[in-house]
Amino acid sequence: MKIKVLILQIFMLCMAMYAQAQSFTLQGRVVDESGSPVEFASVSCLKQGKMTMTSLKGEYSLQLHSADSVEVRFSMVGYKTKIRVLRRPRGKQTLQVVLYSNDNELSEVTVTGTRIQSGQTQELKKEHLKNLPSVSGNAVEELIQSQAGVSTHSELSSQYNVRGGSFDENSVYINNVEVYRPFLVRSGQQEGISVINPDMVEKIEFSTGGYEARYGDKMSSALNITYKRPKPFEASVSASLLGASAYVGVSNKKVSWSNGLRYKTTRNLLGSLDTKGEYKPTFIDYQTYFTYTPNERWDINFLGNISNNHYNFSPEDRETNFGTMENVKSFRVYFDGQEKDVFRTFFGSLGITRHFGKNTSLSLIASAFKTREQEKYDIQGQYWLTQTETSENLGVGTYFQHARNYLNAHVESLKLLLKTKQKRHDIEGALSFKKEHISENSVEYEMRDSSNYSIPHTGKDLYMIYSMRAKNVLDANRIEAYIQDTYRFGGGEGQSHYTLNYGVRFAHWSYTKETILSPRVSLGIIPAFNENVTMRFAAGLYYQAPFFKEIRDTTTVNGITYAKLNNKAKSQRSIHFIAGYDYRFKLNNRQFKFTAEAYYKLLGNLVPYSVNNVKVVYYGDNESSGHAAGLDFKIYGEFVPGTDSWLSLSLMSTKMKLNGVSIPLPTDQRYALNLFFTDYFPGTDRWKMSLKLAFADGLPFAAPHRELESNSFRAPAYKRADIGLSYRLINNADNHNKKNPLRNLWLGVECLNLFGINNVNSYYWITDVTGQQYAVPNYLTGRQLNFRISADI
C-alpha cells in the first residue's frame, strides 16, 4: 500500500509540473499615446475564453495556457483595438501596450464657416445678445422670442409660446441639466432675472419642434445652453437705468472659473403703466461656473446659482381710457394696500466626466433645485367707470383682493450620460433619477361691491366673486432614460448627404404610476444637385409628463374653490409632423439663408388651461384633444455688410374640442411678424443701430373664472418697436495691452416702445348691478428712454 501511495504522489507531482510548464502569467500595463493609464480596458484571449479588465492604474494580470502562439486582444471604447501574438510563452510575461485614439470622424459640411443645420435644432449666434434692445434684461429669451414660430405678448416677461403651446411646454437646459422657473409668478412685473446669464453663454441651440430624444418630456420646444470656459482673463461690466451686470472669468491649462453678478430694477419702466404708485422691484442673481481638468482623461465642473427676487408694490391710483372714438369710457381707481412677493431660488450641478479617448465620454451629473416663494397682497380699489361723452357713471363700487400664497419646492436629480462617436455614428444615451417635493399653502379671494350690491348675489346669500384654498404636498420620484443615434452617410462626390437622427425616450412617474415611451426620428438631406439646399423631415411622439401645475385640479363647493392634486392625470400628448426647407444664397456677395417650415401637431389628452398675464391655470384633468398647424418663414443674413439681421413670419391655426365645443387654444396666434435689423453709420463702425419690431395677432380671452368655451373675444394685435443706438468709444479688441486693458467701451441709448403704442396685456372686468360686464384693458409699458454703458476687458 505504501508503495502504491508513493507512486500516486509522484504521478500527481509530475502532472502538476507538466501543467505548470503548459501555463503562464501575462501581466503589464495599458496606456495611451501620452503615457496615461487606460482604465477598464479589456484584455482577452478569445480562443481560451479568458478575459480581465485593467485597473485604475492601467495594470492587468491574466493566467493563460501556453501554446505555439497565443493571441491576446487589447480593446477599449474610443481606442483602436490592438492584438499581440506571443510565441511559446512560459512563466511570467510582462507586456506594456499603447492604445491609440480612434479618430475616424466624418467631417462636417460647412459654408463660409457657418455650420449647416441638418436637424431640427438651430444654433443661434451669441453675438446678437449684445445688440438687442432689451426691456426685461433677459437677452437669451428675448432673442428666442424673435424667432419664427415663437410669440410673446408682454415685453415685461421672458416667457414665450411656441407653435400654440403654453409657457410650461418649453424645456430649458444648461450644461445638460434641466432648469426650472418659480411656480407662483403670475405677471411679467413679478418676473425677476432669468436663470440664463448671457455673459456666460457659449452656445445657444433652439428647436421649435421635432427635436431629439435627449431633450425632455415637453410638447413644444427645447432650448439648450452651453456655458463657456473663459480665456486666461476676461471681464465685462454694464449698467443702465434698468439694472447692471458684471462678469469675470479666469483660466489656465487645468482650471477655469467664471463669475457673473446681475442686478435688475424695473422701477422706472413700471412707472409708465396706468397704475401709479410706489414700485420697489429688486432682483439680484449670482452665478459661478468652475471647471477642473487634471488631465485629458478627467473633467470636473460645478455650476451654482443664487437668485433673490423681491417685488414690492403700493398702488395709489389708476386712470384708463378705452373704447372707440365715438364711445370712450374712463376707468378711475383709488387704491389702498400693498403687495409683497418673494421668489428665492437656488440651483447647483456637479458633473464628473471620464474621457475614453477623443470620441467617448461618460459623465455623472448631480443637480439640485430649491425654491421658496411667497405672494402676499391686500389691495382695495374704489372705482368709477364713466361714459366720457355724457359723464354717466356706468359702474361705481369697491373691490378687494387678498392672497397668502406660500410654496416650497426642491428637486434633486442624478444623471449618467454616455457619448461616443464611432465612424459615421454619434451615439448618446442617459439614465436619470429625480426626486421631487412640493408643498403649497394658498388662500386667495376677491370681493366686488358695485352700487351697494356684492357681486355675485342671489338675494339671500352673499358670496365672494372668487375664493380659493389649497394645501397640497407632492412627493414623487421620476425615472427617465433615452438613447439616440445620429447617422451620417452619403456625401461622396456626386452623392447626396444624409443626416438621420433616431432615438427613443422613456419615463416613469411614481405619483401617477404612468410609464411613457417616445420614439423620435428626423432626416436631413443635402441633395447632390444643389449643396445650398437642405430638406428636413421630422416626426415624433412627445409626451408632456404632468408636474405640479398640470395636476392641480379644482372643485367649487358653496362658492369656495378647493385645489387638490389629481394622481390619475395622464401625460398630455403631441405627435409632430414637420417638413422644412433651407436655401442658402449670396446677394451682392453677402450670405443669406431662407428657411421655410410646415408643421402639424396632433394633440391628445390635453389638460385645458386659461392664461391671465403669465399665470397659467389648468383644469387638472385630461378633458380635450386638438391640433396645431402652421407655416414658419425666416430670412437671415447680412442686409448690411458686417452685421446680421433677420425677418420672420409665422402663420398658425389651433383648435381643441372641449365638452363637445370646438374652440381655439388660449395661445391661438394666427399670425406674427418679427424683424431684427442692425446697421452701421456710413463710413464708420463706431456708430451702430439696432431695431426690433413685433406685430402679432391678439389672443382669445373671456371673462375670468368662466369656462374656456366662452372664449368669444380676441385681444387687439400686439405691436411694438424698440430701437437702440450705440457708440463705440474705445475699439481696442485686437491691440489691447496692459497699458490699456479696455478692449471695448460702448455708450448707448434705447427708446423702448418707440411709437408709444398701448398694448393690452390682460383685462379687468367690471360688473354692474344689472350683471352687465365691461372689460377694462390693462395696458403694458409706454415709451421709455434707457441709457446704457458697457465695457469689455
Distance between the termini: 97 Å
Give the helix/strand class.
Answer: mainly beta
Query: Mean pLDDT, as a whole number?
Result: 86
Query: Helical amount among residues, as a percent range?
Result: under 10%
How does CATH name the architecture of the largest domain?
Beta Barrel
What's the main sheet like? 22 strands, antiparallel, barrel
The total count of helices amounts to 3
Kindly estimate the percentage of residues that lie in beta strands according to DSSP: over 45%
CATH topology of the largest domain: Maltoporin, Chain A
Structural shape: globular
Rg, rounded, reads 32 Å
CATH top level assignment of the largest domain: Mainly Beta
Question: How many structural domains can be distinguished in the coordinates?
Answer: 2
Query: What is the H level of CATH, i.e. the homologous superfamily of the largest domain?
Result: TonB-dependent receptor, beta-barrel domain
Low-pLDDT windows of residues: 15-21, 104-113
Number of E-type strands: 48
